Amino acid sequence: MKPKSSFYQITSLFFFPQLFLNAPEDHPDDIYPIVLTTATQELFECCIDEDVTDQSPYKLLKKDDIIQDIKTRAAVSDFHPVKQFVLDYPEDEILLVFDVDFTYGQSFYLVLTPEAKARIYNPPQPEIIEVLEDDVSKTPEPKPWISLGSELEVDQESVKETREKLCYKFYLKRRPGLPVCFSDRNSTEAECRSVECPSYQDSRFSIKRMQRDCGMQAVPRLQSSTTQTQRAFQRNIFTQYEPRELSKKEKERILSSENLRKFLNSVTPRVLHALQQTHIMNVFTDDFKALGIGAEASDRLVMVSEGLKLQWTFTDEKRAMGNKISSVSWHPTIHGLIAVAFIKKQEEQLDKSTAYINSPAFIVFYGFPDQSNPRLLLECPDDIFAFEFCPSNPNVIVGGCRNGKVLLFHSTIQHITVACLLSHQDFDKKENKTPVMRYCAVSSIESSHKSPVTDVQWLPKTFEQDVDQKTMMTPYSIPKTFKHLDRTWKPLFRVLSCLGCITELMICVFAHVFVMPLKEYTILYNLTEIRKTHTYIYKQFYVHFLQEGEIVYTDWKLEEDEFERKFSAKPLLCFRTHAWFVNTMQRSPFFKDILLTTGGWNFAIWKEGVMGGPIFVGPSSEQEYSAACWSLSRPAVFFIGRNDGSIEVWNLLLNTSESTHFHEHIASTRITCIKPCIASSKQHYLAVADNLGMLRVFSVPKTLRSPVKNEDLNMQIFFDREHDRLKDYLEWEEQWAKQRKEAGESKKQVVSSGF
Amino acid sequence: MTEFSLLSPIQGQKGVQGIIVANSEGIPIKSTLDNSSTVQYAGLIHQLVMKARSTIRDIDPQNDLTFMRVRSKKNEIMIAPDKDFFLIVIQNPSD
């Protein structure tokens, strides 16, 4: 395309004669061939074959440069001949063309007119710019739309109204001016439901769906799962240490070594020296302590003045009157709480079957210092002859009834503490209402005893017993389990013992011993006709006291008879120490094998393991002994209650033939039970119960509660001495019996020989 | 065995409850008590002796433990240590 050449002016060429002279022929007018020397070439940067070549022969030279060159070099300059042309040249740049073919006769030629320059040399740059300018400037014209069929689909899918919308207007004519009443109405209410025309399915008319649009979406199925490797296998491991021991060979080797001998030889003198020293003298004695603490140490001085001091008397008018106390027990853990069981005094009842108790019996809890109102009552179906707190769990109480049943009480600790903490004022407000608690479990009739239960004891855990098939071991913590126990108690085994065992073993029905297992502790109780008997446990044997004052020693282990039924062993020993009923048997709290028994008119001290008899028998007194107990703090002291309501205090170290203290007529009637209790180191109490339902609590004075120096040692010596004496006596008796037999035989011989 | 004769003067003393001979590591060699008590005594007293010995020697390195007597409420324990063995005697004091 021919560029617009508005910039370019047509200029006229000036012909110069010299030009013609110098210039060769056959060249156009606006072309002037010239020769450029090397120096000029270098100056204008148009060296042949370097700056200008065959392919790019054009070179634009600046007009000013040429003029400058002409001025500097004057006639020598190559451009001298064209000086006038250059000066007249309108533009700034003049085209120099390298003439390879020498078309105009010289190596270069100069283009003298701008048109020629434009003709020959077409610079590309302005062309490009012009093309771009053309495209941008033009705005696109909208083309007519060519239908390809999509408007049909659009028409199909579009929703158009087939007809004009109908509009109905309803109004109620009313006279204007009337009062208006506006109110709200809930459209969901049934009364003012808005009228609507719901759509319904018309059976006459159906549209078949021809096409259905549905969309699909690919959902990646995700599944997450985890695993965990167990780092370590759980294993029960334990480590048990064993002390290092030397093997036999090693021991023998060492024992026979010279080394050991030398060692022993060197060490023995030192050890002997030390042993003798300790034996001679005890360097660690405290002399002041050994002197004793003044008057308290000596019993002899303070014999008469101090005695038991009455602290409190507990009675309960409603329940106590007319009843005798059968058993008293201190609460093992709560200080100041004592429980008393009442039984009704009755005349001799020949007909037991009609002995029907009308009013329920109670175990009454008394607490310090309230003397007339009991704190807690435990309701029992029948009179309780004996009851005991469980040593390991003081909330459990077992009791034995007159009708032969065994009861179990379980109280939560709150019951008892609440009872204790109730103050006197509360009682006034509450109108003397005391809390009552019922028993939890009772033995069933068929497995109860036939006669009253007179003694109940807790067996410690150390006894091993085989569980008979008849029994069940039940867990022992919650009252709920007692319901289960209720009526399902069965005896562990029945031990039948005889009464008159001097002759033969007779199986009689009078005395039964039942054992009921209850987890840690077992209750052992027995019964007799009317009077109390006690049973005592000693390892494999139990000692059973009977009503005739006989003491029976029997093995605990069961034997099997030919019918493979469990059978009790024969009693081993039987003693008739007490002339009348044995009412107390108690183990000394200091010596594990010493027992105290009282019955009839005297008391006896027994040592277990000694089969020959009691090691000590006290003197007979004029009054019947009815209760006894050891002192809890002094090994040599015990208390005996009598039939006339007096208490004797015996101190075996002081006087073995009579009581040390004698408190006359503490109670007006027979004392039924004595129980001591240690509340604190300074407060020792003795509870004395009598036949009239009164419970008296005495405080034990210091003389009777603080032990003398070495009292236990002295008592041990005393018992050993008595034991030896008994042994000697038995031996002597044996010998004497032998002698008599020999004497009798010799007499017989004499008599027979006489004939 | 020969050591019986060596131990008999000690054993004959009044109030002696038991004698134990143990080696320097606390393992009993010979004893007049039952095994469990022996092992217990030997082990415990060995530790005590070690402690006492180190105490004495800490105070004065030239010194050494020659004899120890431990008096308790119920009895007295006498310990005679040596380089390779030690002897334990348990005695009931006179009163």
Q: How would you describe what is shown here?
A:
The complex is a heterodimer of chains A (755) and B (95). With 755 residues, chain A is α+β, with helices and mostly antiparallel strands. In chain A, a hairpin with a 2-residue loop joins strand 17 (512-518) and strand 18. The longest helix of chain A has 44 residues, at 711-754. The model of chain A is unreliable at 11-24, 301-305, 347-357, 419-432, 444-448, 459-550 and 552-572 (pLDDT under 50). Chain B is an alpha+beta fold and 95 residues long. Chain B has a single domain, classed as 2-Layer Sandwich (Beta-Lactamase). Chain B is built from two helices and five strands; from the N terminus they run αββαβββ. Chain B has a five-stranded antiparallel beta sheet with strand order 2-1-5-4-3. In chain B, a hairpin with a 4-residue loop joins strand 1 (16-23) and strand 2 (28-31). Chain B starts with a helix and ends with a strand. Chains A and B meet through helix 8 and helix 9 of A and helix 1, strand 1, strand 2, strand 4 and strand 5 of B.
State the oligomer: heterodimer
Q: What is the H level of CATH, i.e. the homologous superfamily of one domain in chain A?
A: YVTN repeat-like/Quinoprotein amine dehydrogenase
Unreliable segments of chain B (pLDDT under 50, ≥5 consecutive)? none
How many H/I helical runs of chain B?
2
Distance between the termini of chain B: 34 Å
Protein name (chain B): Dynein light chain roadblock
Family (chain B): Belongs to the GAMAD family.
Subcellular location (chain B): Cytoplasm, Cytoskeleton
Keywords (chain B): Cytoplasm, Cytoskeleton, Dynein, Microtubule, Motor protein, Transport
